[in-house]
Amino acid sequence: MSGIGFIIQSCDGPIEALWSVYSLAYLIQYIGLAFFTANIIQYIIDQLVGASADELNTVIYWHCASLPLKSLLLSFATCFNIYKYHNLIMFILSGVAVSLVLVSHSFFKHQLENISLIKNPIKLILRVLCHARKHKYPENRSALTYWEEEVPSRIDLGKEKYGGPFTEEEVEDVKTFFRIIPIFIAIIGYSLSEEHYYHLSNADTSFLDCLLLNDALHTACSLLLLLMFLYLFRVFFYKYIPSMLCRMSIGLVFALLSRIPYLLPFLNSKGNELASQILLGISYVFVNPVSLEFTVAQSPVQTRGVMVGIWYASWQIGSNLKICLSLLFHCKHHGICLNFYYYLTKILLLFVILIVFALLAKKYKYRVRETDVNIYQIVDHTYQNYFKQEKEYNNQENSMDISSN
């Protein structure tokens, strides 16, 4: 589609045809992007069966580093005044990328794991919720469950030990699914704080100013800090790294601080951008890869693809909220918004999101699969086997008596 658009633009074709091609191209692009982003992490993890946690985290961090790298290259392309060749460059890069994918797939398809480990998670979630809605009390529960001090919730009644049709792992997977979703408010907060402006280079703008206006400092800081974390902090200061939820809270604090320079009257526009982009670059490192790492680590295997999709959807929710705010305060799309109340509203929203996330993080219960021996379960299974064997023995005795008579 980009090639067709380039041909129409080069031949001075009608503007209606150009808009039609670009509209269809954007539709196809976002559909493909949605399918790709929601499945690429799950596919990579499926290939790394048995890999260590550090190896999985490295893959996640490099995946998150691709976004600032792309934005940084686009900023350089814009400021080198080659933006007018954007369609041609995208056409060539798309062809090269597709060719590389096809060639690499033909060479390595025998070494890749093609059996998907993903099952239908929506069906399981709906079944567990329907069972919880229909059953208020346990039915045919195990006698050993009366030893438990906590009263089971309605969703727990679906477990086999309370007479339900689901295993304990399946019910815990559904509970974990609903515990993770509120945590995505951190993604919405960071996405709300971001500002993306594209300024075409001209004779009145220096190269460094052009890079600053195109968020190059933000993306460069993000990329540099990601590499420093992978190959410096994680290697030498591993025991001092806080928990994932704590790091996400720190990232939201930096996102909040990144909006404050726009409220300071003694800073000029360049000073605002310098301070804001540095703080936002730090926030990106604490929120983006850490939240994806948290999602992959805590999500059950069956729901991991859905959770990553919701993770990406949370980014778009924050972006849409940001667009609504810019329209509400009449901010221009092509320039930096200078409305004082626009940034004040953002700061208030980010402060509320930070407080809510801190409360959710404090109450969040990590999913830890039990590896200790469950004595109650062992005793229960032992007695069930004993009663089964006794019943079979009595049946055999009765059949022998009948045959002898």
Automatic annotation (TrEMBL):
It is a multi-pass membrane protein. One of its GO terms (molecular function) is transmembrane transporter activity. It holds the Pfam family PTR2. Belongs to the major facilitator superfamily. Proton-dependent oligopeptide transporter (POT/PTR) (TC 2.A.17) family. The keyword Protein transport applies. The chain crosses the membrane at residues 19-38, 59-83, 89-108, 216-237, 244-262, 274-296, 308-329, 341-361. It is found in: Membrane. This is Major facilitator superfamily associated domain-containing protein. GO terms for biological process: peptide transport. One of its GO terms (cellular component) is membrane. Gene3D superfamilies: MFS general substrate transporter like domains. Keywords: Membrane, Peptide transport, Protein transport, Transmembrane, Transmembrane helix, Transport. Its main location: membrane. It comes from Amphimedon queenslandica.
